[in-house]
Amino acid sequence: MSDLSDEKLILVPYKKGRRFRRFSILLVFSVMASCAGFFMGQWRVELAYAEALQQRAQLLNSIKLYQKTDMELRQKLANFERGQAIDTEARKNVLQTIQSLESQVSQLKGDVTFYKNIMAPSSGDNLLQIRKVEISPSNNERRFGYKFVLAKVSNNNTYISGVVAVNLIGEIHGKKEIFPLRDISEETELGIKFRFRYFQSIEGDLVLPDAFVPEKVQIVAQSKGKKAVRVEDTFDWRVGETGSDVGKKSG
Questions:
Q1: Cβ proximity of 189 and 108 under 8 Å
Q2: CA dihedral angle for residue 180, residue 185, residue 189, residue 192, rounded to 10 degrees
Q3: 124-236: CATH number
Q4: Residue 8, pLDDT score
Q5: Residues forming beta bridges with residue 168, ordered by sequence position
Q6: How many CB atoms lie within 10 A of CB 150?
Q7: Dihedral-angle region of residue 211 (phi above 0 means left; psi in -120 to 50 means alpha; beta otherwise)
Q8: What is the structure's pLDDT at 219?
Q9: What is the residue extent of each domain of the chain?
Q10: Which of 21-25, 126-130, 168-172, 201-205 has the lowest mean pLDDT?
């Protein structure tokens, strides 16, 4: 009995709803903490998103600036290259013009010498001469234009007449061949008639026979009359050259 008498019974007053209030308060604080955490996280996300948008806008502006700079540099490069191309073309045209003028000057000098020899010959010159032999190409690789000048070297103003024959000397497969102008051109006569007081230009077209490789041009001129003379010259086959020194006599 002594043991039971030592135990004390404590009575606590019971208040209805107290536990529920505690639970409710704890629940409210938990919800508030959760909401605060949620809104804090949401705010941080929105802040990070705003910063990302700002950085994106800055990057887009930088890209636009770089693109504009790149376009300007490309335009400057294109202008520079175009300017270089124009300068190169201009220099090329100037060089071509200079070369053309030099060629014309050379030809004019040759013409002046040619006419001087005709109009003021020396007493030791032959009565008839062959000058200015020219061979010119065409669109057809076997077709060529020919031109040569017969000149009278004399102090009188009388006419000289006669015939001139032209032969092409070359090879076909290593075999020597000679073709008269009549066989390779529209000329129907073996000799071309001429008549002039000072000089006469004879020209036309010829077509090379198949496999024929020309080497020489032989020209034989025969005048008529009391002082008839015969002149024969052989010239190298040279295409595209002009001037009084063209068709230089072969040795």
A1: no
A2: -90
A3: 2.60.40.3880
A4: 65
A5: 179, 217
A6: 24
A7: left
A8: 94
A9: 28-120, 124-236
A10: 21-25
